[in-house]
Structures are given as C-alpha cells and as structure tokens.
Write a structure and sequence with these properties.
Distance between the termini: 48 Å
Largest sheet: 6 strands, mixed
Radius of gyration: 30 Å
Strand content: 15-25%
Length: about 650
C-alpha cells in the first residue's frame, strides 16, 4: 500500500537516515524500533504526509486512507465526549445531508417520467446503498464499544471533553482514529495514555483490524502481542525483520556480533596496511607496493556497528541504613472525597526487601494510596511508616522540582557519590541523554526528558524504600532494562505502580489489586496473578472484580452488605460472570463480522465486484447480523451495569 524508495532526511550536516527503502503491505503489523532520536517519529510523520523528506519518494496506492496518532497533539475542548467521537463519521453525516436533499427534491418534483427524475432516483438509490454499507444507521454502537474499550463509562459520554485530563483527551483522539477505520494506522506511543485494561483492549482491536498498522512503542508486551514484523532504524539505515520483536532481539544480537567480527577484521587489515606503508615508505624498490597499499587504504569503507546497547550497564543503588522489618503497615485505611469512597478497609503489611506491584484500572486509588503513604493527603484509619525508613519517591510531578538553571550532567553530578561519578555519562546515555544532550540546561527539556532526569537523580540517592508511580512512561526498552535490573538488585523495599506487564514480570513477588473500593493481596509475580485470575492479560481486572451487592431499595427490611448470605453472593457473581462472558463474546463476534464486512467492501470497490449483486446481498446479511449482535451487546451491558450498581 505504501512504497518508500531512497528516503533521506537531514537535520543539519548529519543525515538522520538515508537510502531507506521498504514496503508496507496490507495487514502488515510493523513495530518501528530504534534508540530515541533515531528518527522513528519522523518516519511516521513522513508516512502520514506531514513532513517531506530531503530526498526520496513515498508512493501510496490511490484511495488508501491513513490514520495518524502523534505523541502530542492540539486537542479541541468544544464538544462532549460523544460529540467529539462522532466527528470521525463526518463523511457519514455529509452523505446523510445529501440523501435528505435528494429526498426533498424527489418529494417536490412532479416530472415523474423525465430522464432527469429517473437519474435522480438512481443516484439516490446508489447513495443510500453506500450510506447503509458504510454503517450510516448503526455507527453509534461502534462509538460506544470503542470508548468503553478505552476506559470511558456511559456516564462520561455527555461530559464536556474539557473536564478530562490531557491523557483522557488523547484517548478520545485515538477512538476517533480507530472509528474512522483507515487502511493504515500510524501510532506513536499509543499506550502512554492508557491503563492496563485499555492496552489489552487496543491489542485485541489491532490484531483483528483489517488494515495495516505501523506503531512506535516502548511497551514490549504490547508490540509482541500486536506486531508480526520489526523495522529498525539504526546508524541512519533501516533493517527489516519479518519477525515479532522478541525474535528480532535475537537476530539483532547475531547481526551485531557479525558486525563486531567484521569491524575487528577490518581494523586488523588497516593496521597491517599502515604498518607496511610506514615500514617501506622510503624504500625505492617498494614504492609501487606502497602506493598500491595507500590507494587500497583510501578505498576501505568503514564497517558500521549498531549503537551500543546500554542495557548491559550495571547500575546499583548507593548503600542506605537498614529499615525496620515492616516499612509500611496499613490498618483499616480509608480515603473518600465527599460521598465518593476511593477505597476502604485497606489492610496490608509490606515487609523489608519485598518488591510489590499496585495494579488496577485508572481511578481506582493506586496513586491515592501512594500519596497517603507519602503523607501528602489526609486519610482515615492507621498507616504506619516503619523505623529508619528513607523513601525515594518518583512520580511525574517530581520533575517539576529540578533546578532549571543547571545542565543535565550537573544535575546528576551533584548527587553522585564515590565510584559512580566515573559512570555518570554512561548512566546518562542509558537513559537517553548521550552526547550533547548531557549539556542541555534543564529549562529546555521536555516533560518526558525531565521525568527521566528526575528518575536518574532518585536512583543515585541513598534510600531503603522505593515508591515508583508509573516509572516507565518516558523510558525506552533499554532504559527500562537498566532500571529493572537496578531494582531487582536493590536490597531495600519497592512499591511499583505500573501498567507495564513486561517490566513487572520477574521483578515483583506480590501484587495488590485495586478495584471496587477494595485492595486485595495476591502472593506471587504478575503472571501468577494473571493465571490465578484466569486472565490472558490485566485488561480483565475491572470485569472480573467481585462487586459488592447493594440491597434493593424497595425491600421492607434493608439488609446490609455484611449480612448478605453466601448463596446470594454466589448467585450474584454467577450472573455477573455469565453477562461478562456474553459481552465479551458479542464484541469478539462483532469484530470478526466487521472484518468480513471490510473485506467485502474492498471487493465491491473493484470493477468485477461492483457488478456482483451477491456481494451486496452478503454485505446486507452481515450488517443485519452485526445490528442483532449490537442489540444483544447493549442489553447485556445494561443488565451488567445494573448488577454492578
């Protein structure tokens, strides 16, 4: 669908990349990878037609549509969530207006036998068939499924977008792009604004999408689950691997080893040639051979080696005093804002040396409990911080506390102690501050760069309790490996709030699940937790929570939650599970049918398909099946919502 030939991009004297050629085919799922600054986002902008290359061509098939989600974009705040999402169907509304105009004209005209009247009827019939084929009558079901899959509730649909944070508004933009069903999706860090549940929903959506996908992401589990091809930008060149990311990592290691061997052989050849020239430079009998070797030396093309993988850097926390046996103890902790109870009856004990994860849907209280532990907000109940506990706290707002007047290097140099001072530049390189970037003033750094710098500074300060709130949001895969390795070897205690399954895997030994106002303890790693919950991913957390049952309002003798019998709870949970399965089955079937519809529509646009009436009949039959499933989905979802209240 897109052919890239001889692409070159220059910023200043050094090309970002050059002589790049590859093809994006239908149904390709491509992970675009490379170190930060390699040109991944630039490549996406060029593919989206938003930036022109210095040289080369980008050829796109006629009629191919492209949907592009950048990392940062200007957002509109003039509509409700539903109205903003509906803008993805502006072409449908335009068709609807044209149909209404033609229908009005047909009702007003009386020249029923004229050729122009019959032409108008034919045009109306054709446009109406197109309108129905493109989902003109059932687009709202698709909007609801997409918005709810990305974490919105029905109550959010009529709220103004201005009431939501930037991350939630980016979800609306993502929903609009997905709803427009482009032939090629270009996604730049789409998981940055999503929680675990929404990430898995997006994974499933992309896996069943009929079009091509090109994405940039530092979420290893996400790209492994979605992509089947890996395109790496390295040393200004592109390397195309027809394999998922994990297999690419193995092949890349082999390629780099080959490069190193070739480089070593070349260096030996250069050294031998230079020694020959130097030895016989002034001997007349060897003049011809010397000149030949000089020309040979000039013709040597240096072997390039891929950027050094800094994940091998060993980073260790500086020693700290030993804390008490129980750094954090919560007893019946409760946090409420007015009538809204975030969580209640939280009882947990975190022992010295434990690495624990806080997981759950956004808004369920993970960061709120962290703030309670930090003493930043009031709460009810008893929360005890143990003896000699020294807390190292990382959250996005920590970046605001940096001194803007100093450089990146000096920021770290001020806190580094002992031998670690000799490794400052290596550490900065591992966290994407290599080369000239280390001399930047803090005041010119982006929000993501400041967060990374605050992370490095925290890693070099002596603490015995780490509290990390979404620490991987602005880290690439190599940086995450460095951080993960450092935390694993950290002899203190760590609390990690994260949606990154790959990062948590092998790192934590206990999981605290937040949901429905409760905090539940699960012993074991992140995938032990998933297996126990019978989930393929954490996106089912919200659906599989046990919801407390409220007594019916009309009963003469209201019964409190605590007095509900085991049988009633069991029956209630059984109904919830059954409805959850029904909702999931409907969504899966609708997704498969929509893929079939899309394939039919592609066939109907060809010269052969346009005259094949059987395709139109199949199309209408599939649409009726989708409409029936959407009705079943809505009914099941409404019943589920009632049970959860």
């Amino acid at each position: 669908m897109i052919s890239i030939e001889g692409l070159k991009v220059e910023f200043g004297a050094t090309p970002l990349f050059q002589d790049v050629s590859f093809v994006i085919n239908k149904k390709d799922r491509i992970a675009l990878v490379g170190k930060n600054g390699a040109g991944k986002s630039t490549m996406l902008k060029i593919l989206a037609g938003l930036q022109r290359p210095t040289e080369g061509t980008v050829a796109m098939q006629r009629g191919v549509s492209v949907g592009y989600l950048p990392q940062v974009m200007v957002l509109s705040d003039t509509r409700t969530v539903m109205a903003e999402a509906e803008t993805a169907f502006s072409h449908i509304f335009e068709m609807q207006k044209n149909l209404e105009r033609m229908n009005q004209e047909l009702s007003e005209r009386t020249d029923y036998e004229s050729d122009s009247y019959h032409e108008l009827i034919d045009r109306f019939t054709h446009e109406n068939d197109r309108f129905l084929m493109m989902g003109g009558t059932n687009y709202k079901g698709g909007i609801e499924r997409t918005l709810m899959g990305l974490g919105f509730s029905r109550n959010d649909f009529d709220r103004p977008t201005s009431e939501f944070s930037g991350g939630w508004r980016m979800r609306i933009e993502l929903a609009k792009i997905l709803l427009s069903r482009p032939d090629i999706l270009l996604l730049d860090e789409p998981t940055n604004h999503l929680d675990i549940e929404s990430i898995q929903w997006l994974e499933n959506f992309l896996k069943t999408s009929p079009g091509a996908v090109v994405l940039v992401s530092h979420d290893r589990a996400f790209i492994n689950n979605v992509t089947n091809r890996t395109v790496e930008i390295s040393c200004g060149h592109v390397y195309d691997y027809k394999v998922p990311y994990d297999e690419y990592v193995v092949l890349r290691k082999e390629r780099r080893e080959q490069q190193l061997r070739a480089y070593e052989n070349q260096q030996k050849e250069i050294k031998d040639t230079e020694e020959f020239i130097e030895r016989f430079r002034y001997k007349a009998t060897k003049a011809v051979q010397v000149q030949s070797r000089i020309k040979q030396l000039e013709k040597i093309v240096p072997v390039e080696i891929d950027e050094e993988d800094n994940s091998s850097l060993h980073l260790k926390f500086p020693p700290s005093v030993r804390s008490g046996n129980y750094p954090v103890i919560c007893e019946n902790v409760k946090k409420a804002y007015g009538n809204h109870v975030v969580f209640h009856d939280v009882n947990l004990t975190i022992r010295r040396g434990e690495k624990v994860a806080f997981v759950g849907k956004n808004g369920e209280g993970k960061s709120t409990l962290v703030k309670c532990i930090m003493g930043e907000i009031p709460y009810e109940g008893k929360l005890t911080i143990g003896h000699n506990v020294q807390i190292g706290y990382f959250a996005q707002n920590q970046a605001q506390l940096l001194d803007e007047g100093v450089t990146v290097f000096d920021t770290i140099d001020r806190v580094a102690k002992g031998d670690i001072r000799l490794k400052i530049r290596d550490i900065l390189g591992a966290f994407m501050f290599g080369g000239e970037a280390s001399e930047k003033k803090v005041k010119v750094l982006s929000g993501g760069e400041r967060s990374r710098l605050a992370m490095i500074r925290m890693l070099l300060e002596p603490v015995n309790l780490l509290i990390l709130d979404e620490p991987t949001n602005h880290l690439d895969m190599r940086s995450k490996d460095v951080l993960k390795s450092a935390i694993k070897e950290f002899d203190g205690t760590a609390i990690i709030v994260s949606h990154d399954r790959e990062f948590l895997d092998g790192l934590v030994t206990k999981v605290y699940e937040f949901g429905g106002g409760e905090v539940k303890e699960h012993i074991g790693g992140i995938y032990d937790f998933l297996q126990k919950k019978r989930m393929e991913s954490l996106d089912e957390l919200q659906l599989s929570q046990s919801f407390s049952v409220k007594p019916a309002e009309k009963r003469e003798e209201p019964v409190s939650d605590s007095k509900l019998s085991y049988e009633i709870r069991k029956e209630q949970n059984k109904k919830i599970r059954k409805l959850e399965k029904q909702v999931a089955d409907c969504e899966e079937q609708i997704g498969k049918l929509e893929t079939q519809v899309s394939e039919l529509e592609n066939r109907m646009t060809t010269s052969e398909g346009a005259s094949d009436m059987s395709l139109y009949e199949q199309h209408q039959q599939l649409k009726r099946q989708i409409a029936s499933l959407e009705e079943e989905w809505e009914n099941a979802l409404s019943e589920l919502d009632e049970l959860k209240k």
